[in-house]
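Field: COMPLEX_INPUT
Field: COMPONENT_COUNT = three
Field: RESIDUE_TOTAL = 1288
Field: MODE = joint
Values follow.
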Amino acid sequence: MAVTVQDLSRTGPTPIRGEQDDHELSSIFKAYTVSATFWLIFGTAVGLLLAFKFGAPDFWAGKYLTFGRLRPIHTNDVFYGWASIALVGTAYYVTVRSCGTKLYSTALAWAGLWLFNIAAIAGTIALDLGYNWGDLEYREWPWPIRLVFLAALIVTVWNILATIARRESQDIYLSNWYIVGGLLWTCIICLVAVLPWYQYGLGQVTISGYFMHNAVGMWFTPLALGLFYYAIPKVLNRPIYSYALGVLAFWTNLVFYPMLGAHHFLFSPLPWWLQTTAIICSVGMLVPVLGGGANYLLTMRGRYHGRIESYPLAFLFVGVLCYVFGSMQGTVEALRSLQAIWHFTSFTVGHSHFTMYGFVTFAAWGGIYALLPLATGKRPGQLGMAVHFWLATTGVAIYVISLSIGGTIQGLDWVHGKPFIQSVVDMEPYYLWRGVGGILMFLSHLVFVWNVWRMTAGKPGDAPSPIMQSEEAGA
Amino acid sequence: MSIDAKLWARPALAGQVLRRRRDGRAEIALHVAALAQPRRALQFEQMLHALPGVASMSLDRVAQRARVVFDDARLPLPALLDACAGAACEAQPLHRDRLVDRGRALANASLKRLLVAGVFTMQAMMFALVLYLGAVNPLDASTAHLFRWLGLLSAIPVVGYAALPFYRDALAGLRAGRPGIDVPVALAIVFIFSASVVNALRGSGEIYFDSISMFVFVLLLGRHLQLRAHVRHRALGELAADALPLLAQRRSGDGGLETVAAAELVAGDRVRVAEGEAVPCDGVLESARAQTDESLLSGEARACVHRHGDAISAGSVALGGPLELRVTREVGASATSVLARLAAQAHAARDAAGDADAPAARRFVWRVLVLAIATAAFWLWRDPARAFDATVAVLVVACPCAFGLAAPAVLTRSMAVLARMGVLVLRPAALPAMAEADRVLFDKTGTLTEPALRVDSMETFRGTSQAEALRLAAALAQASRHPLARAVAQAADDVGIPESAEIVVTSGGGLQGRVAGCELKLGRGGFISDIDADDDALWLSNAEGPLARFPVVETVRAQAAAVVAALRASGLAPALVSGDAPSRVRAAAERLGIDDWSARQSPADKLARVQRERTAGRVVLAVGDGGNDAAALAAADVSAVPAGGTDLARSHADLALLSGIAGLPRVRELALRARAILLQNRRGSLVWNLGAVPFAALGFVPPWLAAIGMSASSLAVVLNSLRIRAGQEPRTPSLPLHERTA
Amino acid sequence: MNALLILIPVTLVLAIVAVGIFFWAVNHAQFEDLDSPKVLPLLDEEAPHKDGRVDAGSRAAPASVDKHAAS
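Field: COMPLEX_OUTPUT
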């Protein structure tokens, strides 16, 4: 059968996209991945250091290495450096390929990469020098630096929209809807976040809730979901279970998500009604989350054999599971009775790693392992991917479990009005375990560097093609 | 490039099939038989995707139809067709009328309104929620005021844009003097919105922006789903290619053949029709003898023999070899077109009868208006300050939300269940009519009976064994597409069929060729010279004389008698109306247990019969499959066409029975059940609407309770409709509906 | 609280923009066929690499899609 189909597709003339275009796309994808990998190593090294400062606060306690300076460096670097750059790199590949065309402008893609990196470097230096904007989470960078990031976004969205405009098919594949939706929305919230008005007192809290949660939910989530919609079918060699369900989930997102940011500020002086609407929207989010998750898992149906056939798929699978359970955890956390216990404890740190690491980072890895070999023609080693996968999975599991248990104990201590130091003492073993998980995660990143090296510049490894041979039983 | 494909480069031909789009691209509908197989469909799709210049396409696998949008400057039509042929997916361009898809345009408009209603209802509900919670955590006056205004702002797109179809349909209904359910819906929207605006402006009193938006959204959702189901069913129903060919082979002055557009033919042209192709327009036979399949017109799957000078109708299929004819009437005036026009007129006459909802809706409006006026009068007498709010509250609880949803919910659910049973509903109004019907008119041939080859009672001569005769006959029969030839080939399926060579399909109904070194003939008596030509049977002979005779009889379809009995049991009086000879009709009627039969009925007679029955006050179900049934099918209150019915019949039927007439009793059963559920839904929602009125009139129903009541009653209607299920009959092959449903 | 004076208009404007994009999508037939676009990721033909090599796995793609759909 294969032969016939191949012959058929050969009857068409050669596509206008040439070898040179493929080469350029491959270089861009490579450069984004390499650059993101650097920020992953840097950001998580800082994170590892921070984890141990919980147990040994005086360790490396120089002025530039205090907890207060390093923490925002860790969060901002993995946020703006690693996850953003990695997902934009895959987004370029996904858009160009699913549109069956060539990239609108290589120059713009390179300019975007430079801007992303300049912002991340400048932000890191500013924070370490103590120029913390003092805003809430993910807005610690001084605003001019955040404008550079905004410029990078605008360049990217321009390039991607222009690429989609020259697509070969009438239908815009679902991935591109998610990618463009995420990019456009993030441009808007970045703009709202730098507006100078009302950035004090309660207004600041409200806008930060709006910005910070939307930045997670409307930036990383759509980009990662767009990647899922391309990479999972590609790896499995079968189309997505239900395209219509994906379309429905995309548009439902828009109805619910914009209002839910305020759920981070329950019991705050924010108006009670605003908190309540945020809770209701958080519950409403279950609709697109479960719809999307079911869609991915049903696409993978028949491939759960208790053994890993493909590591790219394994990464994507863990990503999907963490997406579903992380989002549900988020909904549960938004309920007042539970948030009374968990908020401001380490439980939330566990949740953010569950989603940002288990979901977003695993999705990015799955995407890179699935697509980068197709772009460069070089594959990583099977063993390298296996070691990376198991170290990272074990690490994040230890990390999230220990902080979830610890955070609950911590919260109960607080609720029962015990002395604060009691909660610190109770947390000690869990901080230790969190450090262990962190070490495993960091080690896995070193293996990832090796794998990226083999997929780009080094000698290719022995892994099979990321595209699985479909088996009769599974099909 | 093949010659056939090249022809499509001619502007006259291309103009008939291509539609120019606003973006400069061309759009074409193709009939691709290969689409019936999912695997081939995918290959076809991939092949098209790989072609440069193809912008988009949509496939309808069941209708075997592809709609392709392409840039014909980059990819000329012949190249497109050639590429299809190269991929073993021969594509036949369809007339561009097939591209006009009103259902699609309606579905798009409805989708837009639905989304606007959804997004802004969500906003309105959010703002209303703030106000409701204000009862628990008091808001300061200015915030409350802000949120009342925000509610107003969010409701404007819903009331001003999304709800437009309700106003339009209500006005249309009023103008035509037949107000339907849209009238109370439109009145409720306008009244409640205006009252809420007044309250928002004067800063006191209740506002209902959330309820009214939700009301519009829920009704739009119900109608959108119904429309989608409808569009889907109809798309599935549009099976098979055009009845009339677009191309014709005209003999030019010098005797050569040229291919022209069928529409270009004028009276007097000489046209050649190859075997297996349809005759493009009415004409007179020029060949000495010809055999045609006129099932398109008569529904009778019997080969008709014509002699020189006989009239042949457009749409007949040439069998057993090519034929030549002289055109007597142009394409537009041909018999098939005339039949189609007759049917279209009958359709229009019936559909003018109106909306079944109308009486119920009218009663509803009157009741609500009386209640509202009574409330207003009561409070004007007791306490004029409360009159306005109390009247608005009455209107809100009397909002016909569940009532308006009752019919769409039942219809959508029934259509989904029917699709699973292999029944397509081509006209939604057919279901209520199916429940009301008390008369069923059957066509005979093709519907209740089918021609069959009696292999078991075959006779053999001169010592030939039965198996041997069958093998020899099958070797010849393989070469022809004639229904009887196919039956012979099928009967010999498991017997080793010998090689055959030099087969000639002779005009006039016969096959001739060399099988196992021996010259053989297969055909009707007339073809094998020395046998009586009036015999229906097939003969096999060699040079010395006949070898075997295969009798051909008309048999009653397997479940036909059971279907007739079941329908009679459920209150439908059966009658048989056929165009066939009286002897055959009587025989079939006796076997089926039908007393009321009539024979030799022309299409006009059939139509007249239906109209007579309807005038007598009966509700008529017509079942038929031929083009000659089309007018009767169109005129009946409800009509059904079994699988294999002609295009013409199908395009005028309300129900397509993909698994044959066996499904008919179950359709009736389901229609009765749907009617019962619909009545329950209506009564239930009326009880809610009218029962809550006294409380509302006394001011006991705050806006949030009204909103909850509205959603709860709508949900109850939807859940109740889910009780419509298929009966416990044996499963029939299901349609691939689920694959494409969003 | 006055921050709401920004956030609420922003949300409303965004809702209008989203509706505009949705209308564009409806007009450009993005919802007409919710079935076939799903094969788009599997269709892109892998162009040969610089050294003329071709990724074997991606070559096999269309055939196996085919099997899947047939099942």
